[in-house]
Amino acid sequence: SKLISLGQLEMTWRSRVHFHPLLVRVLHKSRLRYYGKPEKKMDMPYQAYFEVADGSGMMSMVLWNSLCPEWYNSMKVGTVLLLEQYAIKTSYPFKTQPTPGDSQMKRFATIEISLNVRDPPAKISIIPEEMVKPEWGLPEVKYRFITRSELDDLPNNHSCDVIGLVTFVGRTERARKKEHGEDFWLYRWAHAIDGTSDQPFILEIFATSQPDVFERIHPMTYLVCTQMRVVRDLTENPSSKIYLTTSNESQIFITGWHKGQPYTKDTKVKNFIQWTKTQNEDDQMKKTVIGGYYPFPRPPNNFLKY
């Protein structure tokens, strides 16, 4: 069928009533957002953002309401979609922006693709990877993997992806979203090593929309976390360390979930796998820890400084 590119769509959307189909690849995926309120009667108040791209650039796509439980888990990073019957809206200005793996990619930020149950009813097709043709010109998913030895030189809020062998995982903890609110964030701390430094990655992992993975992080698993943000104490407090925290677009994967993921082709991921083959499993097992209370960043050693 006659396709339209994201670039053409941005230039001509105001003058169109009907839009030609789009062929795009998912590059980023946000956590599922629930926006229900007691006074509003909505069956499924869910929303999820995706960043999708074709040869012309990248644009946001929003999945609404009952389409979320139907499609959210099938639309993975790397999935190719054929979109027919979609709406175009001006972009929501306050949404989070993932950092693209390809810094040269053009971003169309004025509009977003909206997929709804009606007006018009979205028609979504997933194209199996083996049927994707090179002449379609769809971009590959690119990552920004770093090693532990590179982390110390990165600035605060820098976006990166990491892979490591888990040596510690803490219990699940809760933090209030607002001071007097009743909603909580769930998170847990983890340490992961990659053989490039004596220090581990310290990871603050918030529960994303992947409960099956979040609950099964345990020592000796290979952990991949994408779209992590660097957090460093800008007040130069020597007792605090640099750590990484999840963002709205973070995805986490553990042993058993890696097969077929686009990052398996990444050079740094391959290097990490080579390093793990040189390690003695029993020696690493002796160094692992699970559970307990993990105060971080640690308070100073003496009370006066505190």
Description:
It is a single chain. The protein has 306 residues and is mainly β. It has two domains: 6-136, OB fold (Dihydrolipoamide Acetyltransferase, E2P) (Beta Barrel); 148-305, Nucleic acid-binding proteins (OB fold (Dihydrolipoamide Acetyltransferase, E2P)), CATH 2.40.50. The protein is built from six helices and 16 strands. It has helices at 6-12, 67-71, 148-151, 211-214, 267-277, 281-286; strands at residues 22-29, 33-34, 46-54, 57-64, 80-84, 87-90, 107-115, 123-127, 159-169, 173-176, 184-193, 201-206, 222-231, 243-246, 252-253, 289-290. The strands form two sheets. Strands 1, 2, 3, 4, 5, 6, 7 and 8 form an eight-stranded mixed β-sheet that branches. The longest helix has 11 residues, at 267-277. It is globular, with a radius of gyration of 21 Å.
